Each structure stands twice: as structure tokens, then as C-alpha cells.
Amino acid sequence: MRKDDLCITVPTFFRCPISLDVMKSPVSLCTGVTYDRASIQRWLDGGNNTCPATMQILQNKDFIPNRTLQRLIEIWSDSVRRRACVESSAELAAPTRDEISDAIDRVKIEKEDRDDREVLSKIVRFGRESDDNRGFLAGKDDFVRLLVDLIDQVGFETTSAAKSLVVQEAVKILSLVRTKISDRRRFSNLILTNGRDRLTVIVFLFRTGNVELKIDCAGLLEFIAVDAESKLLIAERDGLVTELMRSISKDSDSSLIESSLSCLIAISSPKRVKLNLIREKLIGDVTKLLSDPTASSVSVTEKCLKLLEILASTKEGRSEICGGDGECLKTVVKKLMKVSTAATEHAVTVLWSVSYLFKEDKALEAVTSANGVTKILLLLQSNCSPAVRRMLTDLLKVFKVNSRSCLSAYDTKTTHIMPF
């Protein structure tokens, strides 16, 4: 494959046998053949019951994530991106720390008298090069405060294009170095509580910026959500929740979906925020995302289930989760197994909250119809954490199931149907 002037050779086993594209979420069937999740899901949804590569009839249609292959593909993809980046920007010499220090000093001295975008763009490139570089930037005297001051602009929506670009570069750098900032609460206060509306600027950039800028803004908003007060300030800023929900649609960029979900998780703990998210129909949007095999990567699935876990702590959230034909709960049951340990824990907590803790009748019906009891029994046999095991045991009490006798019966049944 050729990308501009960069020739890329794709290993054959990285390609999906159906689409022939590099696999994004490789999963294996019971035949041992690995496919991209979206492609094989479409094959099965079309009424097929065979393995496309071998044409064997499938004994079951379960997917087993191929973690090893996925990791290999990620390593290969990263190396391709790095190579493309190096070749496309070979003419740009990497700035040294001394050059960056001089650039920062110039911005400090002349920030009101010149267009700093070029200097800030150089600092962005420097920060993206390594974790050490980001630590160096965060440790420079008053540099973080300087960047925050650059965001402080009255009437930002009507400011000049040059000034707007400077603010965008400042936000990018802050997003880059945020995890290296030692005093997170002080940084949050700089943006939120100094009487100048820097939060409005960041929210405006999230609503109007490109994908890369939206991701930076979402990361920054997540980082400054340090307590109930800051979370309320962020969540109740006009237009933010609506834009975050728009950004988790299945057609959005995958990295933007993840960063938007992380931001929603960070701001959602106050009850007032939870109720607003429920009124905005976030549970329905999360259910759609979980149900879409092309959009729900492992990380996205974990974050969606975490959001449902948070919202299930309210009566209104539980009612919404159990509402309609129980589609949300059925989707949660599907994610109980074969995703990740974190996904299993969040899914079990959601089921435990609606079925055991608050005993919603609709929840019992939905879980039962989705074969949830069998999966709960299987999970009890797995190496789950003590907390998850306790919740699973509680769930069996609600369904009035004797785990030992049912497991024995399940094992006997399994023995009879196994081909060997």
C-alpha cells in the first residue's frame, strides 16, 4: 500500500479475511479464524451460520478478542505513523531545550505585542516528542500560568483570527502537559475561579474546533474537574453537554469518542449533573454506542459501562436503564464476558444495582431474557475479584438460583453437546 510517497507493506495476517483491511478489533470464532469484529458481525447478522474462511458450521457465535494480534497491530500502526511523521516533517529540525527556553522567554516578554502562534507551534511539536519534554515544559517557571493567561481573552468569539489561533495553541500545550502539573487543584482554580471566563473559551473551542482541538479541550476539561463545585461549573456551561453527547455518536472519530466519554465520566458524579445527563437521553446514546461493533472498542465499552454504572445510582437512571424493551440491560448482559476485566466489573455493578440493590422488576425480565443468569453462573467460575463475586452471588439470590446445582447441570449439559 502507498500513502503519498511512503510505501507501506501490510502483514497478511493483519488483514481481515472478509474486508481485506487492517483489523481494528480482531476477534476469533470457535473455528480459530480471526476477523475484524465489524466485518464478522455483519456476516452473522446477514443470517450466515458458517465461518467465512473455512465454511465450517459454527457450534456457537461467540467472539473471543485476539488481544495478542491487536497489540501487534497497534505496535505496527504506531511504527508506520512515526515513520510517516518523520518523513513528512524531515525538514523541521527538532527544537532543543535551550531553543524552547528562549522561545518561552520571548513569549513572556512580548506576549502583548506580537503574534506568538509560530513560537507556540514550535513548543507544541517539542511537547509531542516525548514524555520528558512535557515534564520539562510543565516545570518551567510560570509557563503554565502564562498559557492560562493567554486563554484569558474578553470577547473571544469576536477576537481576531491571529489571537484565536494563539489561544488554540495555548490550549494544545496545556492539554499536552496537564498530567505533569503537580498541583491539579491550583491549576483548576486558575481556569475556573479567578473571575475571568476562561472556561467559556475552552467550551467554545470544543464546540467549534476540529477533531484534534476538541480532543485537547475534552482532556483539559476532564483534568480540571477536581471536585463537586468544579464539576458543576463545567457540566452546566451552556452547550457543553450537548456537544459532548454529539461527539460520542458512532460516526465520530474514535479518539474523540474516548475523550468525550472520559470527560462525561469526570463531570458526572454530582447528582444534579446525573439528572441532567439522564434528561438529555445520554443512556440511550450510550446504549447505541455499546451496540455498534464498529464504534465500541474495549476502551469505549469500558467507559460506556462506567457511565451506566454512575447513572444507575439514581432512581431516574435505573428507570431509564430498565425502560422500553430492556435494550440497555440486554446490551449490558452481552458485555459481561470477553471484553475486559474492567468492563465485566462495570457491567456486573450495573446489573447488581438495578436487580439486587433496588430490585427493579423490568430488570429481572430483561436479564433473564438475555440469558444473563447463565453468564452470571459462568462468571462465578472465573477468576473474578472478591467484590464482583459478592455481587454475582447477590444476583443469584434475586433470581433464586442455586449456583452449585445449576453449575453442575450446566457442566453436564455442556459435556453432552461438546463435539469431542
UniProtKB/TrEMBL annotation:
It comes from the Eukaryota. Its EC number is 2.3.2.27. Residues 9-83 form the U-box domain. It catalyses: S-ubiquitinyl-[E2 ubiquitin-conjugating enzyme]-L-cysteine + [acceptor protein]-L-lysine = [E2 ubiquitin-conjugating enzyme]-L-cysteine + N(6)-ubiquitinyl-[acceptor protein]-L-lysine. SUPFAM superfamilies: ARM repeat (SSF48371), RING/U-box (SSF57850). Keywords: Transferase, Ubl conjugation pathway. PROSITE patterns: U_BOX. Pathway: Protein modification; protein ubiquitination. InterPro entries: ARM-like, ARM-type_fold, ARM_PUB, PUB22/23/24-like, RING-Ubox_PUB, Ubox_domain, Znf_RING/FYVE/PHD. Functions as an E3 ubiquitin ligase. PANTHER family: U-BOX DOMAIN-CONTAINING PROTEIN 27-RELATED, WDSAM1 PROTEIN. This is U-box domain-containing protein. It comes from Camelina sativa (False flax).
